Predict the structure.
Amino acid sequence: MNLGEQFGPYRIESVLGRGGMGTVYLATHARLQRRVALKVIAPALADDPDFRTRFLRESRLAASLDHPHVIPIYDADEVDGVLYLAMRYVDGPSLQALISEGALTPGDTLRVTEQIGGALDAAHAADLIHRDLKPANILVSEADGHAYLCDFGLAKRTSSRAMTQAGSFLGTVDYCSPEQIRGEPLDGRADIYSLGCVVFHCLSGRPPYALDSEIAVLQAHLNDPPPTLSPELDGVFGRAMAKDREDRYPTAAALASDLRQAIAEGAPATVRAQALPATREHSTQVAPRARRRWPWIVAAAVLVALAAGSAAIWATRDSGDDASLAPFVDRVENMLTQSAAGRREIAAALSDANKCKTSNAAAAERIDSVATNRQSILQQLGSMTAPTPATDRMLTLLQRGLQNSIEADRHYGAGLRSSASCPAPKNPNFTLAAASDRAATTAKELFVARFDPLATSLHRRAWSAGEF
Ligand SMILES: Nc1ncnc2c1ncn2[C@@H]1O[C@H](COP(=O)(O)OP(=O)(O)O)[C@@H](O)[C@H]1O
Ligand SMILES: [Mg+2]
């Protein structure tokens, strides 16, 4: 969409930001002369009929909420097939931008918690769950510090294919409840968990589980105890972020009330958080830390399997009419064969370099060309249409596996290039390569657990995760 362009009743003025679902523009409603924030949904998503229906329904529900801290929705509709949502324009930073500059003071944190908590309780009373409560969805007006909660119910329920094709995932895993990770039906207490995570981030300057990979963060949400910060506050985090939602605060108001008390009990002295200057400079927004994007469905699938301690639980789910899936199996097999050849080539290159048969640079060259090859396999995968939901899940897992393998390849290449001596000395690139390899193996194991039963039922060979 071009700036100055007319879009339905709106004139597009400028780009406010981009998110997992599309682009947000500053626009003006021509007749009303009202400035709005116009969220225009990415075509890859909007083309999905399920998504369209859900989007329009959820937007209308959100528009029916009338609360001072829920962003007012003016309009949700489509222009020539392009879906959009028009909402109040907030002139100010997101909470995400604010905390990327450091922790908030306890007083500022409490203010945001009470405001956003009020919005959540009102939504829950109307049977609406947010599902994606995170600092990026909280906007704070520059003029008066009024906080608005945005993007009700929009995220995390879109189909995996649409997301993969859009090339990105909606959001972050930093604030996600265990039951959401397990793919269970949700109620308002999922939002309470997320609010606890946001409060922790505000006070400490980091998300509750600041770990290297999304997988590690998801596992921590499932298994690690709630994070701790100070004796006064830890009880609040323990209850807000309880693994079992039965143990959580029943309302955000209850959470906010305990937070107020904990802060009054001397938290300011003990919170290891740096206070904000009294007046903040919002105009220069610090680039947020690299976004962690992750195909949600994959992450959930991986973790459900990990949590159950067995990848095999997926193996025989809705395998459908197997014979009609033969062309699908053939195509995938072809890609696995190519990737397997790449894997052998990498092993040979690493071994040759290790035995000083070739230079590190030459070995890196060989590994790079495997990575390039895998990239093209990944592209083919992205353009494939899966015949059934079960095969769709297989494709998504295989994509994840290959993505991680490519990452590992790049790290190996960089590790080799960093030194001319033989054997190449240990360096951080090799550690990263090993981590990517492990992530690749996890995804590939889950893929194989689903794909092999299908392949063997069609009298094709079975694969192991370590082969390709
Ligand atoms: N109502 C609004 N007023 C002003 N800016 C907005 C509004 N809604 C969204 N934005 C801006 O657009 C960006 C992208 O929003 P969004 O697509 O929801 O992605 P995300 O929530 O993942 O950041 C936000 O980070 C914010 O900077
Ligand atoms: Mg948002």
In short: The first strand starts at residue 6 and ends at 7. The CA atoms of residues 73 and 392 lie 34 Å apart. The domain at 95-264 is CATH 1.10.510.10 (Transferase(Phosphotransferase); domain 1). The pocket of magnesium ion (ligand 2) is lined by residues 19, 136-137, 150-151 (CB under 6 Å).
